[in-house]
Structures are given as structure tokens and as C-alpha cells.
């Protein structure tokens, strides 16, 4: 190798592009810097949270919670949903393991009869 040549990587790694995005949660503006390919997802997520807040506002008629209280309620509701989904996933995995064990047992018994 001559002195004029440099060791360059064979593949060029592209930098991920980021962009500031303005969203509003519960009427409060927020600027979030996110990857360009995640902008639509971020906007969709903000709309999801805002819809949850609107639903709670509709359901809570006797009191006027603050935005912070709404956000706490939404967080608690979402956490509950995550916990429920994780339990369902664990239950489904357990059922899959039980079914696989039963299939193995049936296959073993079928082989022993042959």
C-alpha cells in the first residue's frame, strides 16, 4: 500500500437524519426531535394520546381534572393495557408449550405402537 492510500471502510454508514417535530398533547405544544422515518409514527402516537384524553374528558363529567391529572390517568390506563397484553402473551406462550408437549407425547405414543 502506498502512503497516498488510506484505510477506508468498504461500506459507508449513513447518518440517521433527525428533525424537530411540533406536536400538541392535551393542548400543550411540545417540540420533539426524532428520526425522519419516525415522524408519522410520532404524530400518530400523539393523536392516540389526545384521543385517550378526549375519551376521559367525556367520561369524567363531575370534575374538571387538570391536564396533568389527565396525563396521569392516561398513563395509568395505558400501563394497565400493557400489563393485560403482557399477561395474555404469557398465557398464549404457556398454552403453546402445553400444546407442543401434548403433540410430542402423542407422537411418542404413536411411534411406540408402530
3D structure, described in words:
There is one protein chain. With 114 residues, this protein is an alpha+beta fold. The chain contains 2 helices and 2 strands. The chain has a single domain, classed as 2-Layer Sandwich (Double Stranded RNA Binding Domain), CATH 3.30.160.880. It has a two-stranded antiparallel sheet. Helix 1 packs across helix 2. The longest helix is centred in the last third of the chain and has 47 residues. It is elongated, with a radius of gyration of 26 Å. The mean pLDDT is 87. This is Cell division protein ZapA. It comes from Moraxella cuniculi DSM 21768. Keywords: Cell cycle, Cell division, Coiled coil.
CATH superfamily label: Cell division protein ZapA protomer, N-terminal domain
Oligomeric status of the shown chains? single chain
What is the CA-CA span between the terminal residues? 69 Å
Radius of gyration, in Å, reads 26 Å
In percent, how much strand structure appears in the residues?
Answer: 5-15%
Give the mean pLDDT: 87
The DSSP helix count reads: 2
Strand order of the largest sheet: 1-2
CATH fold-level name: Double Stranded RNA Binding Domain
* Structural class category: alpha+beta
Low-confidence stretches: none
- Report the helical percentage: 55-70%
Into how many domains do the coordinates divide?
A: 1
CATH class: Alpha Beta
What string, H for helix and E for strand, traces the elements in order? Answer: EEHH
CATH architecture tag: 2-Layer Sandwich
Largest sheet: 2 strands, antiparallel
Amino acid at each position: 500500500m502506498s502512503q497516498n492510500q488510506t484505510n477506508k471502510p468498504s461500506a459507508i454508514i449513513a447518518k440517521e437524519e433527525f428533525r424537530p417535530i411540533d406536536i400538541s398533547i392535551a393542548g400543550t405544544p411540545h417540540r420533539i426531535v426524532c428520526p425522519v422515518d419516525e415522524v408519522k409514527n410520532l404524530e400518530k402516537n400523539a393523536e392516540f394520546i389526545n384521543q385517550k384524553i378526549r375519551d376521559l374528558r367525556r367520561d369524567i363529567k363531575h370534575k374538571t381534572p387538570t391536564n396533568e391529572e389527565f396525563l396521569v390517568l392516561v398513563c395509568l390506563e395505558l400501563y394497565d393495557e400493557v400489563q393485560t397484553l403482557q399477561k395474555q402473551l404469557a398465557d398464549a406462550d404457556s398454552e403453546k408449550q402445553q400444546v407442543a408437549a401434548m403433540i410430542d407425547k402423542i407422537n411418542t405414543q404413536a411411534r411406540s405402537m408402530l
